[in-house]
Design a protein that fits this description.
It contains ten helices and nine strands. The protein is α/β, with parallel strands linked by helices and about 280 residues long.
Length: about 280
């Protein structure tokens, strides 16, 4: 099986895209940081169903890691990633160096607001969405895809990217791909490899609590009492809880009742040294 073409320069990426455009091909972009699992590959296959040509970027973006976070140890699995992308039908992999993305003298960064300042991930990782918005904007401008696919597991990020594309009038449709889960419900994540066997056994508590909370809210229970019960259950399972919140599914603003919906439940918590996030619609 022939693998995808691999390019490392913006100029080469643009030349490839221009060639497809001349043949009136519809182009999809799937931005990733590598360490690909079935969740990523589901996004690649979704892109393939929606477009004629699929570009996957692999770039571990230093701008979205704080000094104390795991940039240096973030898993990098290039050889297996390329094999998986070949099997998934990827046409081109854009794998730039840090110097290609942020050359000497780089001085422009995007400071997103709205869903990027919802008091969720931004409260614990205040640097994060500025780094995401800057690199995603660059990728969208460089590849100029018709659609770009992002996973719903990183739900706040998905809403930030949708707002970014809308506010900057970028001619691209942002598509969310459903979260892929293990048999016990745990959302697939590159960071799951850090979990010990005992932690892995307890990790599905998050999706169980989300499901029970969604069911209770649908049944008419007050949102705050449902969230309080959920927070207690997560803490009792040994997590250090960052947040469990019910938010408007598009704006991510706090809501007081089910009438303020549509509702998205979002959670983040640490289990040992591993921080997990998840979300579920109500």
């Amino acid at each position: 099986m022939a693998g995808p073409r691999i390019v490392r320069k913006v100029k080469a990426l643009r030349a490839a895209v221009a060639g497809w455009r001349r043949r009136r091909a519809r182009i999809a972009l799937v931005p990733t940081m590598g360490a690909l699992h079935l969740g990523h590959l589901s996004l690649v296959r979704l892109a393939g169903r929606r477009a004629d040509r699929v570009v996957v970027s692999i770039f571990v973006n230093p701008a979205q890691f704080a000094p104390h976070e795991d940039f240096a140890t973030y898993p990098r699995t290039w050889t297996t990633d390329i094999a998986k992308l070949a099997a998934a039908g990827t046409d081109l992999v854009f794998a730039p160096t840090v110097a290609e993305v942020y050359p000497e003298g780089f001085a422009t960064r995007i400071a997103p607001e709205g869903p990027a300042q919802a008091g969720l991930e931004d409260r614990f990782r205040p640097h994060f969405f500025g780094g995401v918005a800057t690199v995603v904007a660059k990728l969208l401008i460089e590849a100029m895809p018709d659609i770009a696919v992002f996973g719903e597991k990183d739900y706040q990020q998905l809403q930030v990217v949708k707002r970014l594309a809308r506010d900057l009038d970028l001619p691209v449709k942002i598509v969310g791909g459903q979260t892929v889960r293990e048999q016990d419900g745990l959302a697939l994540s590159s960071r799951n490899v850090y979990l010990s066997p005992d932690e892995r056994r307890r990790a599905p508590t998050l999706i169980r609590v989300l499901g029970e909370s969604a069911k209770a809210i649908k049944a008419g229970e007050p949102i705050e009492s449902v969230l309080a019960r959920g927070r207690s259950a997560i803490t009792a399972a040994g997590f250090a809880l960052d947040y469990l919140e019910a938010r408007h599914a598009e704006t991510l603003k706090p809501i007081a009742s089910a009438k303020d919906g549509p509702i998205r439940l979002l959670v983040a918590a640490k289990l040992g040294a591993t921080r997990l996030i998840d979300n579920l619609g109500v």
